[in-house]
Write a structure and sequence with these properties.
Blueprint (H helix, E strand, L loop, with lengths): L5 H14 L14 E6 L11 H19 L3 E3 L3 E2 L4 H9 L4 H18 L10 E2 L3 H16 L3 E11 L4 E3 L4 E2 L2 E2 L7 E10 L5 H6 L8 H11 L2 E12 L2 H8 L5 H10 L2 E9 L10 E4 L4 H6 L6 H18 L9 E10 L6 E7 L10 E4 L5 H10 L7 E2 L3 E7 L6 H11 L2 E7 L2 E5 L11 E7 H12 L8 E6 L2 E6 L9 H20 L7 H9 L9 E3 L6 H4 L7 E2 L10 H14 L3 E6 L5 E2 L1 E2 L9 E4 L3 E4 L27 H4 E3 L6 E4 L3 E2 L1 H5 L2 H4 L12 H7 L4 E4 L7 H14 L12 E3 L3 E2 L16 H8 L1 H10 L7 E2 L4 H15 L31 H19 L3 H16 L6 H11 L4 H10 L16 H4 L4 E7 L2 E8 L5 H10 L1 H7 L6 E5 L3 E5 L1
Parallel strand pairs: 1-2, 1-33, 3-4, 12-14, 33-34, 35-36, 37-40
Antiparallel strand pairs: 5-6, 5-9, 7-8, 9-26, 10-11, 10-13, 10-25, 12-15, 13-14, 16-24, 17-20, 17-21, 18-19, 18-20, 21-22, 22-23, 27-32, 28-29, 28-31, 30-31, 37-38, 39-40
The structure holds one RNA strand of 88 nucleotides.
RNA sequence: GCCGGAGUGGCGGAAUUGGUAGACGCGAGGGACUUAAAAUCCCUUGGGUGAAUAACCCGUGUGGGUUCGAGUCCCACCUUCGGCACCA
């Protein structure tokens, strides 16, 4: 027998398949059930295919091959995402025209894909950079334009200084360009957008209809970012600086203020968006985004225009520079000359401009509720604005304890740690950083927050703390409606005036002490206020809280709890308060419930060369005119200096931009920007259905036959790019009547990243890149395919093991050598590759080994099920078990071996074809039917019954699965080992799970 | 910070509805063949006590719980990967 030589047999079969394209072609007129199996189409980069690609492609290939053998009409196509930045950047790097380098890359990719033995239907190959393709990309643009879903707008856009083009939100990852990782800046430019936001709700809701990984769904949900809230109108009054001062003093009598406010005419109205209308009484100031719509309108009314202008410019510049910087300080300045009125309480609230408010979300204005929103709280602390609690937790209390206030802080910490949930607090900037409490030897935190449930726990806490407090120091407890101070016993003995004075003295000293530190303790403001208070008890101060610095306790987005300090809704739950305020505002026509989304419209203009030109013409007379459909495609000219300058390279090409207006025939200019490459990839899966059609993007009959995609495999990186855009396109096509289904991809799976042998991400600089070409040359494509599938679950991240691949290579060699043991009995039926399942088990088998038969049929079942579930790794291990068993045999039954070859074929197609042929079959193995396991070989006549005593395995017996419980009990109790164990003990309980386990409890 | 996924031998990873934890592969150790090596084949391989392939104990990130029985279910926590991150 010849040696297994993949270098010889693999090209042989690749050539054979190329000559027999019908084996893999989808049939347009077939009556068979369709199956659309798809891998995300690659962009042909100069680097060539990597092992990650190979994993995704092998997975879909195996699936497609099995489905074909099972009699499905399988559509399994391939094409090229040829436009776009990577291709263009690569072309610039090697100083070749992108069309040329792309063509070269496509050739290389094609070679590599074929070398992998992938069963694509090459007759449907597409290339998104060909005019035949992008004329329909342009057609889609026009369709969107006609529907009002493509629009041009001057707006601040993400700009990558290195790629010199704008980017969609989705292409900015953590403030950096998705491609080159440069910091993205903001630029104001005229740009084309697709109105994907129109579908925000559907894109969110329809996620339940698809079988996708939960993680991807979650990413999309986050990205769409739906939040239900309320839009509220605040009136603004123009005030003199004197009036402003008067109204800003929150201590003033409410009625007096309200009356005075009402007398001032309303100068403007501002809409704010809030998700917490229940906290409206705690809204103590308003903040406008520096770049928002609201400020734009109010700006002219401000008394300090210049300052605001300066701040605004500063904020915009800062956005450019520091967008990525985390924990930015919340800067802001007051807007003078205007005061807002809380529409519900009638209370005057100051208006600020602050860059922590987003200009393009809601109306760019918020009502700030510092007591119950962390960000508002930070801003309030920084700018000394009032904080007012309006929500309390009925039973939750929080204590703050400065550890330097204690005599023995370590001891106290240990005591508290056992009793309460604790958090360590350290001062960072103007707030606290919360962290877990560390063990003994580490440095003690500045302070701790103690969580307590109910008054009893508070009482216990006080008992622990009081004796340990140094004289003149305290711990404060927040919870319910009050803030309480615990002092050392000797400080305050009773409620006399004298004692109060003593207490105030303590606090004053403390202020000095805290101020003397170089870091700012946020509680300082609080303590200062307390000093002025008079109404307190002997050893605690009870005080309705106007402010607290205990962030963990008070500044909490309390989603549960009750409302207080809110005349209209006092005492009701948060949910009820929400409803009531909403109703109240609706009745007065000053607000309504609305839904806001984080999703922004899709910016599709690119100031680059290598993309589909936007089919729009600008005419001095007629304005923006779409290119008539009959003039498509607007061809991308070949001879262009495409090195990016920041403006479209087409801008300098007169022969391109100079044109006639399709409406009036006058002089006009073409749009010179090109489309985002993700526009091309948003519809490519439709083009496969009908790639040669020059009338439509795809014929209706074809769409009906093959869509939607049944199985789609690709990388997670497209979660909010390609996958979201494609869903948008399909929904839009449905609304325009081109398709009748809501989702393009029914089942989606992500392949995990293949790491280098060193468990690091493969990268040239790390020198850990595995090149599939090299693997194929050394070990063969079948080995590569099998190993990629055997490494681990498809979706998991897993390292490449150069030694591990030898294991699967050995397996294939074993399979190869098994040929020699196959009994060459000459009987006709075997030579007919189309023979039916019934004949598979014929009487003239040379080997009637039942054990092998059972394992074989188990393997058929498991491999079928596992491919269906994309659990290729376990399918392979099952085949290994079978082969290991077979190798112990002297002879191998030919029909049985052929059944095995068929289930192995999708994994190792070349080897399977070769052996299949060696065995005398004339047809391709892929024309054979997929085997079905025979039930009679799946039933077991002997099972292992494990015998446990008190949950511990003590013995195991082989018995018939049909045995009755009584019989089993008799056998088990007669086992010598079990007898020994039981001794004379009483059998308390007998648990019997037929065919599995017995548990005897004594 | 919020949301989602994941923690199992030296390594990649297996384990229906809770029912023999560690399949399969790699690596390692021992042996056969060989002048020798590679390749190949055979045996062993979670940890511990033991002369033992006798027996027992411990073991699926940590601590609790439910159960006759927990990798699997519940509670709390730790670690890690990924997404969002001033989105009000």
């Amino acid at each position: 027998m010849k040696k297994y030589n993949p270098a010889k047999i693999e090209p042989k079969w690749q050539k054979f398949w190329e000559k027999n394209p019908k084996l893999y072609a989808a049939e347009d007129g077939s009556r068979k059930r369709k199956f659309y199996c798809l891998s995300m189409f690659p962009y042909p980069s100069g680097e060539g295919l990597h092992v990650g690609h190979a994993e995704s492609y092998t997975a879909t290939d195996i699936y497609a091959r099995m489905k074909r053998m099972q009699g499905f009409n399988v559509l399994y196509p391939i094409g090229w995402d040829a436009f776009g930045l990577p291709a263009e950047n690569y072309a610039i790097k090697i100083k070749t025209h992108p069309a040329e380098s792309t063509e070269k890359s496509i050739k290389n990719y094609t070679r590599q894909l074929n070398a992998l033995g992938l069963s694509y239907d090459w007759s449907r190959e597409i290339d998104s950079s060909s005019p035949e393709y992008y004329r329909f990309t342009q057609w889609f643009f026009l369709l969107l334009y006609k529907q009002g879903l493509a629009y041009r707008q001057k707006a601040r856009a993400n700009w990558c200084p290195s790629c010199r083009t704008t980017l969609a939100n989705e292409q900015v990852v953590a403030g950096r360009c998705e491609r080159c990782e440069s910091l993205v800046i903001q630029k104001k430019l005229d740009q084309w957008f697709f109105k994907i936001t129109k579908y925000a709700d559907q894109l969110l809701a329809d996620l339940v209809k698809v079988d996708w990984p939960e993680s991807i769904k979650e990413i999309q949900r986050n990205w769409i970012g739906r939040s239900r809230g309320m839009e509220l109108i605040f009136e603004l009054k123009k005030v003199t600086s004197k009036e402003e001062k008067f109204f800003s003093d929150s201590e003033k009598n409410n009625l007096e203020i309200a009356a005075k406010l009402q007398n001032i005419p309303t100068a403007a109205r501002v809409k704010v968006f809030t998700t917490r209308p229940d906290t409206i009484f705690g809204a103590t100031f308003m903040v406008l985004a520096p770049d928002g719509e609201s400020l734009k309108q109010l700006y002219k009314l401000a008394a300090n225009k210049n300052k605001i202008k300066a701040y605004r410019l500063g904020a915009l510049r800062k956005n450019e520079m520091q967008r990525t910087q985390l924990n930015r300080e919340k800067t802001g300045i007051p807007l003078r000359g205007l005061i807002a009125v809380n529409p519900v309480s009638g209370r005057p609230i100051p208006v600020w401009v602050g860059d922590y408010v987003m200009g393009d979300y809601g109306s760019g204005a918020i009502m700030a509720v510092p007591a119950h929103d962390e960000r508002d709280f930070e801003f309030a602390m920084r700018h000394n604005l009032p904080v007012e609690r309006v929500i309390y937790q009925e039973k939750k209390y929080w204590a703050f304890l400065n550890l330097s206030f204690l005599r023995n802080s370590r001891k106290v910490l240990e005591t508290l740690k056992d009793r309460y949930p604790l958090q360590a607090l350290n001062i960072i900037g103007k707030g606290y950083r919360v962290s877990p409490v560390k063990t003994q030897k580490s440095k003690l935190p500045y302070g701790i927050a103690v969580e307590m449930n109910g008054a009893n726990e508070v009482g216990e806490y006080i008992k622990i703390i009081q004796p340990e407090l140094k004289a003149n120091f305290w711990s404060e407890i927040a919870g319910g409606k009050y803030l309480q101070f615990v002092f050392a016993k000797e400080v305050v003995r009773d409620n006399s005036e004298e004692e109060k004075k003593k207490l105030q003295h303590c606090l004053k000293n403390a202020v000095k002490l805290l101020s003397g530190r170089n870091s700012f303790d946020p509680r300082l403001n609080l303590v200062k206020k307390v000093i002025g208070e008079k109404d307190f008890y002997a050893d605690y101060i009870f005080w309705t809280i106007p402010v607290t610095a205990l962030r963990a306790a008070v500044c909490y987005a309390e989603k549960s709890g009750r409302v207080f300090n809110s005349p209209l809704i006092n005492g009701v739950s948060v949910e009820k308060g929400w409803e009531r305020i909403c109703k109240w505002a609706r009745e007065r026509n000053i607000g309504r419930g609305i839904v806001n989304y984080r999703l922004r419209d899709w910016l599709v203009s690119r100031q680059r060369y290598w993309g589909a030109p936007i089919p729009i013409i600008y005419c001095a007379k007629c304005g923006t005119v779409p290119v008539p459909e009959k003039d498509l495609p607007v061809e991308l000219p070949r001879e262009v200096d495409f090195v990016p300058t920041g403006e479209s390279p087409l801008k300098n090409l007169k022969s391109f931009y100079q044109t006639k207006c399709p409406k009036c025939g006058g002089e006009a200019r073409r749009e010179v920007d090109t489309m985002d490459t993700f526009v091309c990839s948003s519809w490519y899966y439709y083009r496969y259905l009908d790639p040669k059609n020059d009338k439509e993007f795809a014929g209706q009959d074809k769409i009906r036959r093959f869509m939607p995609v049944d199985l789609y495999v690709g990388g997670v990186e497209h979660a909010v790019l390609h996958l979201l855009y494609s869903r948008f396109f399909t929904k839009f096509l449905r609304d325009t009547g081109y398709v009748d289904f809501p989702e393009p991809f029914l089942k989606l799976r992500n392949q995990g990243i293949v790491l280098g042998p060193d468990h690091n991400k493969m990268s040239k600089s790390k020198g850990n890149v595995i090149n599939p070409d090299q693997i194929i040359a050394e070990l063969g494509a079948d080995t590569l395919r099998l190993y990629e599938m055997f490494m681990g679950p498809l979706e998991e991240m897993k390292p490449w093991d150069p030694k591990g691949i030898m294991g699967v290579r050995r397996f294939l060699e074993k399979v190869w050598e098994m040929q020699g043991k196959v009994q060459s009995v000459k009987h006709a039926p075997y030579f007919d590759t189309r023979y039916k399942v019934q004949s598979q088990e014929s009487g003239d088998t040379v080997n009637n080994n039942l054990k092998i038969k059972k394992i074989l049929h188990q393997t058929i079942k498991k491999v079928t099920d596992d491919i269906e579930a994309l659990a290729f790794n376990t399918a392979i291990s099952q085949m290994m078990i079978l082969v290991n068993e077979w190798r112990a045999e002297k002879e191998i039954d030919r029909s049985e071996f052929e059944l095995f070859l068929r289930i192995l074929a999708p994994f190792a197609p070349h080897l399977a074809e070769e052996i299949w042929e060696e065995l005398g079959n004339k047809n391709s193995i892929f024309a054979a039917e997929w085997p079905r396991p025979q039930e009679k070989f799946l039933v077991t006549d002997e099972v292992t019954l494990v015998v446990q005593i008190n949950g511990k395995k003590r013995d195991a017996i082989k018995i018939s699965p049909n045995i009755t419980e009584a019989e089993a009990k008799k056998i088990v109790l007669a086992l010598p080992r079990i007898k020994d164990y039981l001794g004379g003990k009483i059998l308390r309980r007998w648990v019997y799970i037929p065919g599995k386990i017995v548990n005897i409890v004594t």
